[in-house]
Amino acid sequence: MITRPERKIFPKIVFALALVAVLVFLNHRGYLDPVKNFITRSAIFGSKSALNATSGSRTALFSLSSLKQLQSQNQKIQELELNMKTLSLEKQELENENNQLRNQLKLLPKEKFSLTGADIIAFDPLSLEEFAIINKGKNHGLKQGMPVIIYDRVLIGSIYEVEKSYSKVLLSVSPLSTFNAALAKDQVIGVARGKYNLEITLDLIPNQTQIDQGDLVVTSGRHHQYPQGLLAGEVISSSLSPDGLFKQVVVKPFYSMNDLRQVFVITNSQ
Question: Which residues contact 76 (CB under 8 A, 6 or more apart)?
Answer without folding.
Answer: none
